[in-house]
Here is the input.
Amino acid sequence: MSSSNGHIMQIRGLKTYFPIRRGVFSRIHGWVRAVDDVDLDIPRGQTLGLVGESGCGKTTLGRTILRLIPATAGEVHFDGQSVFDANRSSLRNIRRQMQIIFQDPIGSLNPRMTIEAIVGEPLKVHRLARGRDLRQKVADLLQRVGLSSRYLNRYPHEFSGGQRQRIGIARALALEPRFIVCDEPVSSLDVSIQSQILNLLADLQDRLGLSYLFIAHNLAVVEHFSDQVAVMYLGQIVERASADALYRNPAHPYTRTLLAAVPLPDPHIRRDRVSVPDEIPPAPPAGCPFYPRCPQAQDHCRAQRPKLQEVSPGHFLACLRAK
Here is the structure.
């Protein structure tokens, strides 16, 4: 794949399945299709928001493209280089350019390590700094994310949730990456702190030219933070468009369902309610994955699986009712 099309990462036919084992001999009786044949392009220097219900495969997708979870099938190319085919040496170089910010700022930081050791670990592993140089670089990283260098010898439990997430961001920036997976980085924080972290991420993107895959379930946050948005349901991308187009004119019934659930700040504004069954099917149906819950489903939706196709410039939709 060529990297000259303005995309820093290209994902084609990505599948990540997990075996279902039962019995004394742990035989495989089926598969959980966490990511099921996903095609996705992540624009260079921009933010692609990935939204969907809990359990739809967003985090699995983010970790698979970084090779933190093995893929079942498909291809991932970072700036023209194959991530899955890279040998140990090549992968080491690629991983310097790809990082992740985890959802849980408590569980992602080792409680036995000082902040200097946590943020400096990537620099030591890649042999980029040591001694006084390492300590100075860690101090600079802390200041870049709005923390004092006086915190170098403290431990994670001495910080608030927002401060811990800033430490996680500093660690992700240590190797000067070009692409970062933001795995719900503000979902566990207070609302007042969320805006501070989002502003920090936006400022870092402007200054460093970073590209983000921003995973979230809060559609209001994604609308204001993302340039493009992809909607995921049961491991599949059902709609993708620019943030303005998707929020102004959602085309997929599932997208409209998600947007209808977003609370509005003005109580006088009324919006059509969309009612769908709460239960997600235990396994994707043979046809459209949203068929059992779709208020507009027809008979042919049961048997035929829709493909993601461009219905208008830059707007992609996986729905058999698309015109």
